[in-house]
Each structure stands twice: as C-alpha cells, then as structure tokens.
Amino acid sequence: MRGTQRNILTIIIALLALQLGSLVAPAYACGCGAMIPDRSERIGVDREESAVRWDGRTETIVMRFNVHGNARRAAWIMPVPSRADVALGDPALFDELDRLAEPEQRDRYYFWPRGGDWPFDVTNGDGAAAAPPGAGSGVGVVGRERLGPFDVARLTATDPEALGDWLHTNGFELPERLTGALRPYVERKWEYVAVRLAPQEQGATLYGELTPLRITFASPELVYPMRLSRLAQTPQTLGLYVLAEHRMEPRSPIGGDHPEVTFAGRIERPEGAVAGLAGARPTHLTVLEQKFPHPERIDDDHHLRTVADTPYREIEYTDRLLTIGGGIPVWLLAVGAGLLSAALFAVRVKRRRSGGDTGVRSPA
Description:
Layout: H1 2-23, E1 34-37, E2 43-54, E3 58-69, E4 74-80, E5 84-88, H2 93-100, E6 104-110, E7 139-147, E8 150-157, H3 160-169, H4 176-181, H5 183-187, E9 191-197, E10 208-209, E11 213-218, E12 222-224, E13 236-244, E14 248-250, E15 260-267, H6 272-278, E16 283-292, E17 302-306, E18 312-313, E19 315-321, E20 323-324, E21 328-329, H7 330-356
C-alpha cells in the first residue's frame, strides 16, 4: 500500500513540475513574430490574437498578447514586406469584434429528465441546485520611439547576422537559431519591427494582457507573417479577425491544422474601435481559428485570398427540459396521463368482470 502511495505521489509531483515548466517555457516564437526574453528569464504567450485590415493596397495588423512568466522585459520581432508605421491599438477592438461574431443562441429541448432535473437533481451544501454537467553595417534604423510600455525600433536589414548584431547591441538577446529563421525575409528584402516590452513600473514582470500594437504597411496582398513561429517550443494557437472587401481565407494550412472559420459576414455599419480600424463603410469580417500542434512544420507565411461571400455564424445550443404552463415537465404529464389511463382501464376491466358474474348456476 505504501509503495502504491509513493508511486501516486511521484506521478503527481511529475505532473505539477511539467505544468509549472510549461508556464515559464521560452516562447521564442508566437504567432506573428518572435518573443525573446533575457537569457535568465522565461516568458510564455497563452494566446495571440490579431485583427487584420486590408483594402487592396494597405494592410494594418493590430496584435494583442496575453503573457506569463518571470520576464521583466522581452523583445518581439515582426517581419513586414514594406516600411511600417507603428502605433498603439485600441484595447476595445477585440471585445467589439467578439460581439459582432458571437454565436447565435438557440434552445434545444429534450423530453426525459437528465442529471440536474427533478427527480435526479442534487443539491450543494447551501441547498442550491447543482450546475449541469498577429548598407554598411547591414542594418538601417528607420525610426525609434516610445509607445506606452513599448520601445519600438523600425529596421531594414541586408543580412540576418547584421540584424542579430544590431539587436544584441541594443539590448535584444537574439537566439542563434532565430538568426537563420530570418534569412528568408532578408532575401525577400523585407523590413522589421523590433519591439522591446518592459513594464513602466521598475522591477515589475510582464504579465497578463498587454496593450495592443498597431502596425500598418503597404502590401499588394493580404499576408500574415507566420514563418518565425516554427521555432516555438509548444503548440501554438492563432486567432485572426480579417476585415476586407470580401470574405478572406488562407490559401493553405502552412503546416498546421486546417483553419476553421467561426464567423463570416458583412458588417453594414462599423462603429467604435472597429470603425477606427476598418472605416465607416460596410466591410466583411472573417474570423479564423487555427491550431499548430507541431510548430516546426510551419513552412510559410499565411497568404489570404478572396472567396465567395457566404455568410456563416456558429450556433450554440442550450438544452432545456420540455415544459408546459408554469414549468410543469411534459414528461411528468405524459407519465401521469399514462398512469391514469392504466388505472381507468383496470377499473373498467374489473367492473366488466364483476357484472358478468351473476351468481346463477346452470343445471347439472
């Protein structure tokens, strides 16, 4: 018995250690770029979400991160196909997009009672019913500025080694393997947005939801940089809100699961933060979810294309017990009616038998 208990305890400790390790595992790449902590610290990204606006000539990406770990500062790099303007994004944007794309709610009724319904409901101790189950040195500095908690540098680079040297000189510790991963962008003469993240409070750690960052650049196609995410150490999840003239979808999965469309529809009158990104004219919103169980298989950036403007909205069903009147379960009425019918039938049969027995005996 003691040996069994020791084995169980060992398994529990191992699982806890694995979970804690995942919380501070280095996120060398996440979604649309690379997240780099200091060598002695760790940072992780729970989920990256990006809202992308493309009008056929100009692309704007608004990104937000939810981070955890013990890093007091970190660097994030995003390749862009042309000169980029960087600003802070509106924190309200994603909440507004979620409201526009929220699933349709429908009720779905069932006849027979389930767990949580009378007479199978179970109460808690308080008596309440239980709840149902985003030349020269080789590097050009286009600009550098402070935006809230971000120190933003916009760079050009003619070779990845020079880019890595510049980042290192300016406080960004670049992992060696990331230098090689940047080579395809250098060969295509892309530029970079390098951002140093640091809390405004001295000594504080990076934690929770960071202020969104808004990056705008010219692009003849809607492209979402993803190639650096192949360096990620853990499975990645990407959420994209795409605002464009028509419904847009990726040309290929680029090494991940097939992208899932969770909403597609026309927004007739954009308002608030959505209008701040897309303008006040009607636009199409496409919401995409994609998982990358094996990030090392990512082999390209996302190139999105126009598809038919077929609307789509998810439906969420709420299962409810079928009732009538003041909440009387229909099953109870049906069972009651059945029992009553059975009782009446029994009485009728009994009466027939009683009436047929007159007590007169036929002669022998």
